[in-house]
Amino acid sequence: QVQLVESGGGLVQGGGSLRLFCAASRAASGRTFSSYVMGWFRQAPGKEREFVATISWNGDRTYYADSVKGRFTISRDNAKNTVSLQMSSLKPEDTAVYYCAAGRFYAITVTSPDEFGSWGQGTQVTVSS
User: Fold this and answer.
1) Is there a contact between 51 and 111 (Cβ–Cβ < 8 Å)?
2) How far is C-alpha 27 from the geometric centre of its chain's CA atoms?
3) Is the dihedral angle over the CA atoms 114, 19, 43, 5 positive or is it negative?
């Protein structure tokens, strides 16, 4: 398990941009941040948590949900133990609590929340129309 803390959420007008950040602390097992696939998920009121994006351990591979492809960009800085999500052209339907997650596997096409073992507390993103 690794501890994750998100920040950067807020209220933005439709068409605007927002950048989310996730800071990771060293896992109790001693595993380094760079050994985890990192992902972003979101959950809107009354809906299930859904996949947004993942990034490989060294940042050379990324994977996005169709709904955000071309608008969102995931990146990571292993030296700072951080992962970010740059969100552009935001739409009201992007409104949700956004969660950072860490997983101990290789594939970045894993989209089920159940596969990720560590989660942050979430940060609210609200997009007005």
Assistant:
1) yes
2) 18
3) positive
